[in-house]
User: Fold this.
Amino acid sequence: MVSSASKSNAAAVNTVELASVRKCYDEFVAVDDLSFRIKPAAIYGLLGPNGAGKTSTLRMIIGIIVPDSGQVLTLGEPLSRSQTRHFGYLPEERGLYKKMKVLTHLVFLGQLKGLTSSEASKRVHYWCERLELADKIDKKVEELSKGMQQKVQFIGAILHDPELIVMDEPFSGLDPASAMSMKDALLELAKKGKTILLSTHRMDQAERLCQSICLINRGRAVLQGDLDEIKANYGQCSVQIKYDGDASFLRETRLVQSFNDYGNYVEVRLAPGADTQELLRLASSRARLDRFEVMQPSLEEIFIEAVKKPHA
Amino acid sequence: MHNTWLIIKREYLERVRTKSFLVLTLLAPAIMTALMVLPAKLATMGEKVQHIVVVTSTPQFGETVRRELLSPSLAEDKDDDENASQSTAAKPSHENEYVIDVDSNPTEAERASLRDKVNSQAIDGYLWLSDDAIATGKITFASRSVANSGERSRLSEELSGIIQRERLAKNGVSGEQADLLLKPIKVEAIRVEQGRETKGGSGKKFLEVVIMVMLIYVAVLFYGISVMRSVLEEKNSRVMEVLLSSATSTELMIGKIFGVGAVGLTQIVVWVLMAGAFALPSLAISVDLSELAVPPAVPVAFAAFFLLGFLLYSTLYAAIGAITTTEQEGQQLQFIIVIPLVLSVFMLSSVVKTPDAPLVAWLSMFPFFAPVLMYARIVLQTPPAWQIALSLILLIATIAGLLVLCARIYRVGVLIYGKRPNLPEILKWLKYAKT
Assistant:
């Protein structure tokens, strides 16, 4: 049921390519037979509930841990030291040296990625200005709020203008305004051709940002590919109908699996294989319609459905 | 290399820039000086002029005793090698320390009255030199306090000289002949090193070894623990994960150990310079500096073994930091580090006795003992070059091996947080990290 549609653009070198990757900690299988490809200049979402294996997967991609079996290719090559300069990583466990000043700290991180100290300092000033941290630049990290520390860490991850930006739960713990400015920065980087891989357990965020996703549960991929295609292929869609008159026909027809009457409108779940046009004709013949809208399933619905299914 | 250097620089600058570093660096010598100077000051403050009565039947003999006790003492006069550094130019006289009266009435009644005088603090003590006492050599010095052993040994030294002379004179030996007979015999220790003879008593050599041991001990316990702390800090603040995406765990480890180590060395160098600045003027007056000259191999060996020893033990501390999660846990494991240090101090005495015994030679090449024992051997007696070379190679290899091991434990340890691992788990971690 998984990804038939996403294998189209095979010519371009994928930024990230995982093939049958497996990682165990003792008896616990964190990641099992995981394969996916991330195209350049895309925002890719790695989704799944807590403990699904997202962080382990990200760590294997940037080379902090090594898979037990399978292969990870980044920028078309197996991981090597020289590649780490093209990666930017925001770990889920945020960590900075508490006693260091923001500027010194970020310059240090930039230098580790190969920037000169003056270049790093210039970029730190630019980004701090952009993310409203300019007045905090000479403060110690410990004097900053958690959200601000997270922005500092975000800057640390993108300072060296990496090709691949890996962010583990980038928006958790941020207020809406900060989340917005970070999202804008990410979108801008994607437009500039950078590849962004982010993990989240918040489906609504992924739905808004990502072009492609991989849904994992218990270390295995349950669903992956282009987000629009996934939704289209998911089949089961729902219809919202606002009507005037008698709606008893919804109970009678075989087209409807279930429906939920909210008073102002009903949300109808179609039976498998049912045609929305047929329902429209039926509805218009029986009641006066104010609105008839075919709703795409939310990612959350898809996710819950996919996880519920027993998989081989 | 670039990364390692950056990490060393960060560790170093972040530590040296703190206020606590500045305060400690400047304040510690002040406290040390106070600790050393105060007791000495207190001790001299307690000293007052002693009023002593010498009781003897012959006033002439009493006078001799009085004169000798007031003049510079015998021990200071005969300048033996161990005290070479104590100046020969200015012999301290004892004229300000004593008031000595001669009493030529050695009777029991007089003794009782003197006893009363001592009791009432009219005098501080009396020296009972009756003819009988001189003949038997059993002389009594009575005073309120018997604590001052230094004073008693000086008295007995002085008196034995005087009485021996007296006895010789009675047997018709002239003063000059007596001087000749009583001239002390001195054995001078000369060290033969590469065909050259070096003066220098074993006492001074031993002192050099002890200074090394003390320095290693203090440096390791003091700065080693800060290596451990810094590893723990990094684990607990989770900076690690970001750093690991840019640098290898080995680079991080080396950076930590060298960075923190350099901070320690900076502090030591500052202290040594400060001590030098204070002590040199006073040293220069009393000491002939050429006396202090040591063979050039010794300072080089000192630097090499001190640095390597420090590195070795710091690496061990880093390893402890890597397998523990809190400082308390780490301190419980400190015995791993303290035991080899203490053992090498224990073995030091056998090294001093027989620096070239085969067992001593092998033990001194064992990396964990080498910083103390091999250095001691170099100071006492030049060991064969191959032994020095082997011990250095083993030391460096052990440090490198430990570093790699440590880096692996560190890498796995920081990513799987939680409880302290047991040995099988650590071994498993090492396997994880290898691939």
